[in-house]
């Protein structure tokens, strides 16, 4: 392996460009860049450069504001894991709900913790956010899709071409918002028929991204879901993300 002093200037320039692009590219491409870097330079140099890239990566969503829409019965880990990952990436995260006060999380069919609502959906506007996350849980999206204000809130993100990430039963609300026609998605398997009937192409994959719309099947898919959601939020608006 060549010494750091022998790494071609052009290669270092490429690394610098990668570092500058981390905020836009997100975690997945960042990880690929690190793997490439490890093959090019000595361990010590790699570690130093990786540290700088990690710092920039942790700020990939700096200045972004991401809404989490949920109500009673949301699958707790499908809120807390993306919440922490997106917050760690530098974004401001806001819990939006048709309820005020607190909402009840669940671990499958058992009650878990309660969470403070930051903003009523009745007072929320998609214009004030850069992206949206829809956690699953059976009761949560089933309640949201009967709330006209919540459905309109979701639909507005698509009207404004902003990225949306939905996991497990979360895509149920997308069906009600009529935003999945001609889109490729995944979900908890029992939603397949509803999504196909709404015009979507359903696939059984851990994480699917279609022009700013990120979907995953279940909590086991959360690592890929979080990575891809952050990447799409960092990239910003997608012209094909629309109604």
Automatic annotation (TrEMBL):
Domain DJ-1/PfpI, chain residue ranges per copy: 64-231
Claim: Manganese is one of the keywords in the record: no
UniProt entry tagged with the keyword Hydrolase: yes
One Gene Ontology MF term: peptidase activity
Keywords: Glycosidase, Hydrolase, Protease
PROSITE patterns the UniProt entry points to: PEPTIDASE_C56_PFPI
GO biological process: proteolysis
Enzyme class of the recorded protein, top EC level: hydrolase
Pfam assignment, any one: DJ-1_PfpI
EC annotation from Swiss-Prot or TrEMBL: 3.2.-.-
Family recorded in the similarity comment: Belongs to the peptidase C56 family.
Protein name: Putative cysteine protease YraA
Species this protein is from: Crateriforma conspicua
Gene that encodes the chain: yraA_1
